[in-house]
């Protein structure tokens, strides 16, 4: 049986169709039923919880421009230090808490929901602070208990969803991780709307300022989600069968992991750390992610520029920055489809172009307000680096869970260590720094431009090294594998259409199957 090779346009159309084809007809009914159960339990919980993380992470910026600055007399570099204390806790706890949350212990199933309850309580406490010192202390521990979520979620999704095409169906993880990353942009966006609503409707109610009500609302949402997590967070498959899966469905989870070449998690050893830190992946992905974070930093502070301009209302200052989050939502949705058509390095090029436009406008600075708004809003496209890097780690290291956990933990720990302290010198907020301070950032914007290019160059180098490894292992290139999947070929089977793009691809797909079967 032959398969008609799709044109480039047909591939794009099919890729967008597959965004909605979450339960492919080529799957047996039992597998579709399993995926549906995972989607309405694991995936929904992960997305709602991640949404809350971003609510609780970004709310300090919304509160700052909505009265907290004046109430707590934050007229120096306090906003920088608030972010530093949060990120210090986040960075210090990142690797140890990640390793705890992704271990094979039966108690790890309850670890993340418990952390969520704790930082919900801490978020509420922020509404009661009287001094900036109290706020520093609370922000540090908010960072500690938020630390394991991002990497822990992405690691666990990669243990339940397929990381490569099966019987020509779309890659399960790509579609789900797209929704996962969408939730972060939605959290950032809705924090602005919540603060605007709190300021308009609750400012002064029961003697509380609008910014205090934002923390109360965020905490109330988060604590409910934390309680739900005790019921719907399954932890690693190795910890045992979750209550919402039957024994047959749980066995199918383990069977699917064997099919996808996903190894069981085991205890970390010195050998695993040596294997990780003598390989190129941890270094290049850490550098790429660090550079992306430093380039991203000024793009989230449109509110500081608007406040400095002096002709925007509090409601506008909270609402206008949400446009870039909306752009991120569209970007992630569209890229989730296009990830199965184009090689990853091409998306990195798009991200670099976006940041070059932003930094170029802001370096010049003396431009119209409309131009500045455009510069900030289009940076929503720079949401691409995070899914690019984490999808790459899940794809490249799917057969080595210990190596993957170490790389993911290292990315977050080392990248956020730099991200914690570098902005103090690069992006200060105190007026005493003159033009180096927000919102002009005479040093910061050139660094933003440079870091965007560092990200692009290093990520493209990582893509090259990945392709070289695949070639040495007898595997098809990423684009050839995606092309085979879009043309309805099974990259896990020995059967390849006679009408496939090349004999080499057929041979390499067969070789891949032999390797997976060993």
TrEMBL record:
Subcellular location(s) per record: Membrane
Keyword Membrane: yes
Biased composition (Polar residues): 505-518
The protein, known as: MFS general substrate transporter
Biased segments, Low complexity type: 490-504
Keyword Membrane among record annotations: yes
GO molecular function: transmembrane transporter activity
Any single Gene Ontology cellular-component annotation: membrane
Region (Disordered) location: 488-518
Family: Belongs to the major facilitator superfamily. Allantoate permease family.
SUPFAM superfamilies linked: MFS general substrate transporter (SSF103473)
Entry-linked InterPro entries: MFS (IPR011701), MFS_trans_sf (IPR036259)
Parts of the chain that traverse the membrane: 136-157, 178-199, 211-233, 282-300, 347-367, 373-393, 405-424, 444-465
Mode of membrane association: Multi-pass membrane protein
Gene3D superfamilies, per database record: MFS general substrate transporter like domains
Annotated keywords: Membrane, Transmembrane, Transmembrane helix, Transport
């Amino acid at each position: 049986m032959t398969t008609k090779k799709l044109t480039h346009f047909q591939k794009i159309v099919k890729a967008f169709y597959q965004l909605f084809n979450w339960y492919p007809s080529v799957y047996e009914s039992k597998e579709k039923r399993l995926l549906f159960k995972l989607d309405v339990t694991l995936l929904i919980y992960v997305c709602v919880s991640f949404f809350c993380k971003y609510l609780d992470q970004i709310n300090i910026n919304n509160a700052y421009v909505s009265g907290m600055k004046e109430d707590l007399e934050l007229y120096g570099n306090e906003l920088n230090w608030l972010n530093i204390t949060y990120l210090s806790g986040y960075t210090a706890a990142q690797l140890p808490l990640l390793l705890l949350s992704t271990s094979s212990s039966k108690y790890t199933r309850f670890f993340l929901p418990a952390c969520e309850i704790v930082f919900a309580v801490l978020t509420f406490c922020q509404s009661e602070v009287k001094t900036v010192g109290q706020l520093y202390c609370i922000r540090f521990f908010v960072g500690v208990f938020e630390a394991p979520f991002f990497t822990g979620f992405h690691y666990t999704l990669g243990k339940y969803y397929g990381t490569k095409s099966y019987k020509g169906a779309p890659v399960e993880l790509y579609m789900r991780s797209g929704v996962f990353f969408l939730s972060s942009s939605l959290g950032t966006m809705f924090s602005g709307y919540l603060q605007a609503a709190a300021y308009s409707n609750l400012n002064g109610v029961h003697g509380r300022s609008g910014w205090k009500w934002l923390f109360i609302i965020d905490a109330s949402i988060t604590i409910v989600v934390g309680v739900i997590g005790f019921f719907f967070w399954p932890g690693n498959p190795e910890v045992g069968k979750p209550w919402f899966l039957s024994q047959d469905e749980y066995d199918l989870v383990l069977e699917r992991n064997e099919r996808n070449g996903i190894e069981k998690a085991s205890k970390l050893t010195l050998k695993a750390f040596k294997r990780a830190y003598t390989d190129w992946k941890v270094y290049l992905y850490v550098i790429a992610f660090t550079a992306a974070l430093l380039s991203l930093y000024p793009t989230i502070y449109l509110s500081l520029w608007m406040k400095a301009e002096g002709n925007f209302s509090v409601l506008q200052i909270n609402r206008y920055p949400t446009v870039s989050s909306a752009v991120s939502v569209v970007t992630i949705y569209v890229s989730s489809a296009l990830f199965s058509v184009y090689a990853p390095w091409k998306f990195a090029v798009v991200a670099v172009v976006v940041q070059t436009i932003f930094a170029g406008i802001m370096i010049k600075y003396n431009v119209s307000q409309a131009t500045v708004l455009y510069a900030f809003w289009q940076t929503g496209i720079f949401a691409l680096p995070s899914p690019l890097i984490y999808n790459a780690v899940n794809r490249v290291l799917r057969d080595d869970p210990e190596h993957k956990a170490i790389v993911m933990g290292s990315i977050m720990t080392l990248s956020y260590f730099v991200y914690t302290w570098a902005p103090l010198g690069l992006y200060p907020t105190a007026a005493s720094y003159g033009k180096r301070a927000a919102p002009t950032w005479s040093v910061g914007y050139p660094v933003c431009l440079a870091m965007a290019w560092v990200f692009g160059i290093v990520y493209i180098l990582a893509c090259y090294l990945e392709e070289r490894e695949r070639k040495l292992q007898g595997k098809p290139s990423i684009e050839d594998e995606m092309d085979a999947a879009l043309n309805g070929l099974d990259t896990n089977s020995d059967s390849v259409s006679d009408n496939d793009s090349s004999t080499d691809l057929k041979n390499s797909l067969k070789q891949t199957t032999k390797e997976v079967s060993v």
